[in-house]
Design a protein that fits this description.
Oligomer: heterodimer
Helix content of chain A: 10-25%
Largest sheet of chain A: 7 strands, mixed
Radius of gyration of chain A: 24 Å
Number of strands of chain B: 24
Number of helices of chain A: 9
Number of domains of chain A: 2
Radius of gyration of chain B: 24 Å
Distance between the termini of chain A: 62 Å
Distance between the termini of chain B: 62 Å
Structural class of chain A: alpha+beta
Strand content of chain B: 35-45%
Largest interface: A-B, 80 and 84 residues
Helix content of chain B: 10-25%
Chain lengths: ~425, ~475
């Protein structure tokens, strides 16, 4: 069966079994070209997808999915979903009323280039990385394109779909100068093939990594920190959970019950904007068929919104923010699309430590307690000038305290792809703890 | 899962297109998850994953494709496309499109399940998870108990142009309990997540009540804890999941994925002393029912017990097919992948430091001021520089050889090759613990392990005063 046929089959069965059902179909395509020593060493080409259902039976919600689209597999899936629903303790599940949403193609023209040009992008990127003699080893130099088509339908009349796509170059390499070695990784994504500039991306990666060589140890103490955009984006990607409506409901977010209260420095405005023109991941509506909107999570330091879907909104007595997200294989949650810290008036540097990159954020940042202690790489700054590179240290603190201690925000946003689009400028934070020697 | 004629056809098509080696990997797995929060069933999900990956070697160059379309036409299309991508269509291999003579091997069930998926109703699982919840309610500060049961039942087929035809079935069960304890505005967490390659008989070995209680004890310890000290100091690392430090700092540096590209700082060091003499390090894919065990790897090679380091001397790397081709090292059955959407690379299985001859008491005796890292979180490493870090989930201060107050928020930071030289003593209480390891070929189940051991100095990232 095709996805479309499977969807109709399932909706018919749902009517037969008298359950409400939402069907989410996804089809992904990927092309990846990895260059090494002036040739394409690895090529990956793929299409993949599946179908997931959310069933509401007797006001209880159950999930199931399948990548095999035969009647037997779909019947198994439907049975499982209904059985899963019966396990539920709470009986207040529902599917939101839907509407005809049409199909939006947001990937038009994204991939427009011949295969040769794509191969040349990967090869050119690798060649550019290699120009600097300190680059000893290139682990990854690749061109990647990703396309996703999403279709939703429900017994509550939701029906629509969209397609979006991204292209990017990814590099990972080892640089060395004498005994000093640094490994770095970065990627640059765009929604237009023509907008990629592999030469510039390579140069930036080499510059950003090369300046960290011959680092000295950093003395344990408290410093003013200048988080570069990528490092701040890494923190934001680890702590977006604080705004997850489900975490608020379940008492796991320290932002619970603090709407319209100051939670950050007045310099802090955090936005999620799914249809932002320069955003990396765009979606016109969420997986429940709710139209997306620009959402201020924090406005000049004041907590304004949580990220909600219909389920968490109902339980909190609020309205959904159109932030519902799931893959066909997972259960309903929320996810930002293009989350960013709004740029500010600029950062005049004085004395402190520039944090260029963080490592081990997934292990060292606890979004429930808010505490973090993560390995950092950076540069020591004296009188506004970079004095030398520093290494072998960890930066520690509490994320909400950090938001309060932000004393300046840079003028230019930089975008990264970290499971979502994340944008951040340079950020100055007072009085953070550093553990070194 | 796939008819021999289809597989044979695809492999021949690839060889005819100029591929020096061709492989088909197909899988079908059923999965179930159930989450119970504060004694109430929340999300329950079931799934059926189904797909195949076709990998072709053209000398040292690799092309890979994956699809959910496992029909003969679907797989032939994918293969023809791959050949065209290499621009080599037209070249015909001497073997032409004739059939291959497969050597069939089927898993013997060394890690097999006794109580399968469908042997118990869903309500049985709910009861178990409610037990875990009850086990965690040991103090009024326990605010929230979040339990997740994951069950996987995977059928795998690997066939390649060398005539390998392997069928394996992998059943895995894991329970994760996360406990949040609260004191005023202070929220702290504890967690414990045992997992094994077996069916629901897993719960005989890990009664849910015990899993809940252990998680809760950790959350309470963290609630009492003060911020960890910051600086360089001696560290006693706990057994079991404590082994994650050497998984990150050492294990990843010994995978041919990095070694073949000379991207690991431990490249070309076989026979050299790379660790302290008290360290013997083993990667074993054969431990019965261990979380990272399987009878065959994802390239169809039998798994084995590989001694990586013996008394500090490097003996072997972890070698997959491509790694063997690039380096000439003997393959070690280490080709692994998350699922069909990834081409395999060399990966760890169950990796641990062997028991030493020190007693646990002796490890603490000489420490004037240091850290006891009792339980670890995850970590990360950059093989090209050896730099690693990992989070500590439960820790205590050591003063004058005595264990004192609990501390939290510690992160251990260093360079793997330095740290492994600074292991001064290893105790005898080896235990292993499961985790998910993320790398180029996705997220896969592995075990890490070690006895208690003492490292003379590590940078501890805590809070500077």
């Amino acid at each position: 069966m095709t996805l479309e046929e499977a969807k109709r089959y399932l909706l018919d069965k749902a009517k037969e079994r008298k359950v409400a059902m939402e069907v989410l179909g996804q089809r992904d395509r990927e092309l990846s070209l990895k260059a090494r020593d002036g040739r394409l060493e690895e090529i990956t080409q793929a299409t993949q997808g599946g179908i997931g259902v959310r069933v509401v039976a007797k006001e209880r919600v159950g999930y199931a999915f399948s990548e095999q689209l035969t009647p037997e597999a779909l019947d198994w899936m439907l049975n499982e979903a209904i059985e899963n629903a019966a396990l539920q303790h709470e009986a207040r599940g529902f599917l939101p009323d839907g509407a005809a949403l049409g199909f939006q193609d947001l990937a038009m023209g994204v991939f427009d280039a011949p295969m040769e040009a794509k191969a040349e992008t990967a090869l050119g990127f690798e060649a550019s990385l290699r120009k600097d003699p300190r680059v000893k080893n290139i682990l990854i130099a690749s061109y990647t394109e990703r396309e996703r088509e999403v279709r939703i339908s429900s017994t509550q009349r939701a029906d629509g779909g969209y397609r979006h796509g991204l292209v990017g170059v990814t590099g990972s390499m080892v640089m060395a100068d004498g005994e000093s070695r640094k490994q770095a990784w970065d990627s640059d994504w765009s929604r237009q093939f023509g907008a990629l500039d592999p030469g510039r991306t390579a140069l930036e990666l080499v510059e950003r990594t090369g300046r960290l060589l011959n680092a000295r140890p950093l003395q344990t103490g408290r410093y003013t920190v200048y988080f570069e955009p990528k490092a701040f984006a890494q923190l934001l990607a680890a702590y977006w959970w604080l705004w997850n409506g489900r975490w608020v409901l379940e008492g796991k977010s320290r932002l619970g019950g603090r709407l319209d209260q100051p939670v950050a420095s007045p310099l802090v405005t955090i936005i999620d904007d799914p249809m932002l023109t320069e955003g990396l991941l765009r979606r016109p509506f969420d997986v429940e068929g709710t139209r997306t909107q620009r959402l201020a999570l924090v406005e000049r330091g004041v907590l304004r919104n949580y990220l909600l879907n219909s389920e968490t909104a109902q339980q909190l007595g609020m309205r959904t923010t159109g932030s519902a997200a799931r893959r066909y294989s997972t259960t309903l949650n929320v996810l930002p699309s293009n989350l960013y810290l709004q740029s500010g008036a600029g950062v005049p540097m004085k004395d402190g430590v520039i944090v260029a990159d963080l490592m081990g954020v997934h292990a060292g940042a606890n979004p429930i307690s808010g505490e973090f202690s993560v390995q950092a790489f950076g540069l020591y700054v004296r009188d506004g000038e970079v004095a030398y590179a520093v290494e072998n240290f960890a930066v520690a603190g509490d994320f909400l305290t950090l938001l309060k201690n932000i004393t300046a925000v840079g003028e230019t946003l930089e975008w990264h792809l970290m499971g979502m689009g994340i944008g951040a400028p340079l950020v100055e934070v007072q009085d953070l703890s550093f553990a070194g020697t | 899962m796939l008819a021999e004629a289809i597989v044979s056809d695809v492999l021949s098509l690839a060889r005819a297109g100029g591929a020096s080696f061709a492989e088909v990997y197909a899988e079908r797995w059923k999965s179930r998850t159930l989450r119970v929060l504060n004694n109430e069933a929340k999300e329950a999900n079931s799934g059926l994953s189904y797909g195949a990956g076709v990998r072709l070697f053209f000398g040292e160059e690799i092309v890979y494709a994956y699809t959910n379309d496992l029909t003969g036409d679907g797989l032939r299309d994918v293969t023809t496309n791959l050949v065209r991508l290499k621009g080599r269509s037209g070249r015909v291999d001497a073997r032409g499109r004739g059939g291959l003579d497969f050597r069939r091997a089927v898993a013997r069930g060394l890690h097999g399940a006794q109580v399968f998926f469908d042997a118990q109703p869903k309500s049985y699982r709910l009861t178990l998870l409610k037990d875990a919840d009850a086990g965690a309610r040991i103090a009024p500060e326990i605010q929230q108990v979040d339990s997740l049961l994951s069950e996987l039942d995977q059928d795998v087929l690997v066939a390649n142009s060398d005539g390998v035809w392997v069928e394996d079935r992998r059943v895995r069960t894991r329970l994760r309990v996360v406990v949040v304890a609260q004191d005023g505005a202070d929220l702290q967490t504890g967690s414990y997540a045992p997992g094994l390659s077996m069916g629901l008989e897993f719960f005989d070995r890990h009664p849910p009540r015990d899993v809940g209680r252990r998680s809760a004890e950790q959350a309470l310890a963290n609630l009492r804890a003060k911020p960890a000290p910051a600086g360089t100091m001696p560290v006693v690392i706990g057994n079991a999941f404590g082994g994650v430090i050497f998984h990150e700092a050492l294990g990843h540096l010994l995978e041919t994925t990095s070694v073949a590209r000379k991207a690991s700082v431990l490249t070309d060091k076989i026979g050299e002393q790379i660790a302290s003499r008290v360290v013997t390090y083993v990667d074993d894919g054969t431990t019965p029912h261990a979380w990272g065990s399987s009878e065959f790897d994802d390239e169809g090679a039998a798994t084995e017990r590989t001694v990586l380091i013996e008394r500090g001397e490097l003996k072997s790397y972890m070698v997959d097919r491509w790694g063997a081709l690039m380096t000439g090292y003997r393959p070690t059955g280490s080709g692994r992948r998350e699922d069909y959407t990834y081409a395999p690379t060399s990966r760890m299985r169950n990796t641990f430091i062997m028991p030493g001859d020190s007693s646990i008491e002796k490890l603490f005796e000489g420490v004037e001021f240091g850290l006891y890292a009792k339980d670890m979180g995850g970590g990360q490493v950059r093989p090209g520089s050896g730099e690693y870090n990992f989070g500590v989930k439960e820790a205590y201060v050591i003063r004058r050889g005595r264990l004192e107050e609990p501390v939290r928020g510690a992160m251990l930071v260093g360079k793997g090759p330095d740290t492994i030289m600074k292991v001064v003593a290893v105790a005898g209480d080896l235990e292993t613990s499961p985790g998910m390891c993320g790398s180029l070929s996705g997220s896969i189940p592995v075990e890490v392990g070690q006895p208690h051991l003492l490292v003379s100095e590590i940078v501890v990232g805590g809070e500077a005063r």
